């Protein structure tokens, strides 16, 4: 999760043997281990969860909607090409694992912020080393192939680096050291060369959220400096790489204008907005929400986004997702998936609580390490809420931010 390495991807590319992790990736094994710790250390769990009334209310809402959706599915005899009970079970374990990871990170962040920040720096360094290996393997063709390193697809690499870039941009560079400054500049360059529109949107969403809720003059200045650095690197790369603007931004305008990729994307019609182009696995979920808008208020719990969306596959244009498609049809757009999973009202409660905690935490004098971590996980929360899942669960980021201790600067 924080190491920037997708072991499943490396196995598929035969960079590591499948037997390297048997049926589970190292990150999944770590999550299960932390999940066991959730019950083995009840005092720690109580400290970060039991006193959080918002989280408990959201958990209650999730429980009720999951139970009601389960009863509905089995009462109506809904059929899917995958096991419904298996899907629900996996998603519940995923939620509990996210809570466990959030508690573990909160404990480490509050007790050992320097080590927590160092682990993120190491993860970014490993991700960049992966890019070096890609260049060693493909030469300059790696640029036209889009950078992805060992982080999976290019979008995955870009999204992994954005919270780090955002956090460093919010801190005086002289306080982070030469090595982190080097990682910061290289990370901006790498994100540009992933040609990932999603990563660019994520960076914009993070920075905009910070500007809206942290109005300090110093913060605005740092964002301007970071943006200028990014612009300079963009201009430099655009001179070397032809068609950069079209690769990085052009696809975004194409989608806004209703221009998609045949057999990959889908065209959906939204009230007021009109026709827009979305990813194929977003189309069934959007069709479901349009048919049952009441679902958007409280969602349907974990796992049911794929279960209910499956009905629309083959009945609407859904790009590459056709009837007989193997796998779960889960939305790419985080705001869509979160709406189906939690509902708009619980999401609003989580978001308001995070913003309140985040603004209050910035009012206290803290160490550079803790300040970095707060910006890092706030950026992760914003991206996981609005743009796309980045490997750090929305619930994990929420727990980390809401339990931030506000340690005094040392």
Concise summary:
This protein has 410 residues and is an all-alpha fold. It contains 19 helices and 2 strands. The longest helix has 28 residues.
Could you characterize the architecture of this molecule?
The protein is an all-alpha fold and 410 residues long. 67% of the residues lie in helices and 3% in strands. It contains 19 helices and two strands. Strands 1-2 form a two-stranded antiparallel sheet. A hairpin with a 3-residue loop joins strand 1 (265-270) and strand 2 (274-279). The longest helix is centred in the N-terminal third of the chain and has 28 residues, at 84-111. It starts with 6 loop residues before the first helix and ends in an 8-residue tail after the last helix.
Write the layout of secondary structure elements.
Blueprint: H1 7-12, H2 26-40, H3 42-50, H4 53-76, H5 84-111, H6 113-138, H7 141-144, H8 154-169, H9 177-193, H10 197-213, H11 217-240, H12 244-256, E1 265-270, E2 274-279, H13 283-291, H14 295-298, H15 304-309, H16 334-341, H17 344-362, H18 368-386, H19 394-402
Antiparallel strand pairs: 1-2
Helix pairs in contact: 2-5, 3-5, 4-17, 5-6, 5-19, 6-8, 6-9, 6-18, 8-9, 8-10, 8-18, 9-11, 10-18, 16-18, 17-18, 18-19
């Amino acid at each position: 999760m924080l190491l920037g390495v997708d072991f499943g991807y490396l196995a598929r590319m035969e960079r590591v043997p499948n037997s390297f992790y048997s049926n589970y990736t190292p990150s999944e094994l770590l999550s299960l281990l932390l999940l066991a710790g959730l019950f083995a250390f009840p005092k720690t769990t109580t400290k970060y969860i039991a006193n959080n009334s918002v989280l408990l209310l959201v958990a209650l809402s999730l429980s009720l909607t999951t139970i009601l959706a389960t009863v509905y599915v089995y009462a109506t005899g809904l059929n899917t090409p995958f096991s419904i009970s298996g899907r629900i079970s996996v998603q519940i374990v995923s939620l509990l694992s996210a809570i466990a990871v959030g508690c573990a990170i909160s404990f480490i962040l509050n007790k050992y912020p320097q080590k927590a920040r160092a682990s993120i720096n190491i993860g970014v360094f490993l991700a960049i080393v992966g890019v070096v290996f890609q260049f060693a393997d493909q030469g300059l063709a790696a640029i036209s192939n889009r950078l992805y390193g060992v982080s999976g697809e290019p979008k995955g690499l870009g999204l992994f680096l954005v919270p780090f870039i955002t956090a460093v941009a919010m801190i005086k560079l002289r306080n982070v050291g030469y090595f982190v400054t080097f990682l910061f500049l290289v990370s901006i360059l790498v994100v540009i060369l992933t040609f990932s529109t999603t990563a660019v949107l994520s960076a914009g969403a993070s920075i905009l959220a910070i500007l809206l809720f942290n109005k300090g003059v110093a913060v605005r200045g740092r964002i301007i400096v970071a943006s200028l650095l990014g612009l300079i690197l963009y201009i430099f790369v655009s001179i070397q790489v032809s068609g950069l603007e079209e690769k990085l931004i052009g696809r975004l305008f194409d989608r806004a204008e209703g221009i998609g990729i045949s057999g990959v994307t889908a065209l959906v019609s939204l009230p007021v907005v009109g026709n827009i182009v979305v990813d194929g696995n977003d189309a069934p979920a959007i069709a479901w929400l349009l048919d049952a808008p009441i679902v958007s208020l409280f969602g349907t719990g974990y796992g049911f986004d794929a279960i209910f969306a499956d009905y629309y596959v083959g009945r609407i244009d859904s790009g590459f997702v056709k009837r007989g498609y193997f796998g779960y049809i889960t939305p790419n757009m985080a705001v869509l998936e979160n709406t189906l999973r939690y509902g708009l009202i619980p999401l609003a409660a989580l978001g308001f609580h995070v913003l309140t905690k985040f603004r209050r935490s910035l009012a206290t004098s803290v160490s550079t390490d803790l300040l970095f971590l707060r910006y890092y996980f706030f950026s992760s929360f914003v991206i996981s809420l609005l743009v796309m899942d980045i490997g750090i669960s929305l619930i994990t980021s929420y727990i980390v931010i809401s339990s931030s201790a506000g340690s005094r600067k040392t």
